[in-house]
Amino acid sequence: MGGCSAPNCSNSTSIGKQLFRFPKDPVRKKKWVVNCRRDFEPTPHSRLCQDHFEQSQFEEIARSPAGGKKLKPNAIPTLFSVGDPPYPAVTTSYILIPLKPEPVEKELNFGDHGYARRTPLPGLEEEDADRAAEDQQPCTQCQLLKKQLEQEMQHTARLQKEAEEMKKRLYRLDRIEKGLQNFLYEDQIRALSLTKRSRRAVWSPETILKARKIRCAVGTKGYEYLREIGYPLPSYRTLCNRLETKIMVTTDMSCEELAELGLGLMATCDSPTGAVGDNDEEELISVLS
Predict the structure, then answer these.
(1) Could you tell me if 271 and 225 are in contact, meaning their C-beta atoms sit under 8 angstroms apart?
(2) Which of 124, 179, 206, 278 could, after both became Cys, cross-link 120 (CB 3.0–4.6 A)?
(3) Is the distance from CB of 61 to CB of 70 less than 8 angstroms?
(4) Is the whole model's pTM more than 0.85, yes or no?
């Protein structure tokens, strides 16, 4: 790095001296050059060392980023090997910039420049007051949007509450379905969702076998009572149609009497769907399982 630009001075940073750039302000730069007694144009690399500045030209507390001394904004170098410099050091803490004299106000021209008048025309004060009052009043559209927002928030909260209730109901129904699966087959559970008068359920072989056992255990009246109260069981005609082997027999014995014999015979005379033929005296159809 270069050294000091002052005449007869070879100080540089290599010997621990701090160097300062020439100011960018043309007026201050000219003072620095004249005080140096050197006729030259400083370059961006021109420097003056700290020995050419009085102690009053440095800040008392402020330090440069490198940790060295920092010049005041209006510092001027005055310590050189020649006589007194033409420009003495500035002792004020800042540069006094003369204020521009205020122009004398001319007579206002009341032409078309109404916006620049100092004294408002009659009626303008009332308009300004009305405009300020309008600005302070709440916006009607804003109030309407705010009300709609509150209604939407209430509707959303209501839907969320209904969704929570539906989740609870689904959970209870799932538990009920699992409980029904302990003693009902899948086709019986599906039959529960059908109406009593229009049931067209498809029964599985397991359900048919189970229904036959229940009818033989409780009898015809008990079996029909279970169907009337809603227990999912196939009708007697469905039981007869789903048997693999059918034998037409004539008997005067009722279903209870046949069940007591333990032969596996079932009669259609007691079926709630009516007689098989048109003759009431014809007997039932017995089926051997």
Answers:
(1) no
(2) 124
(3) no
(4) no
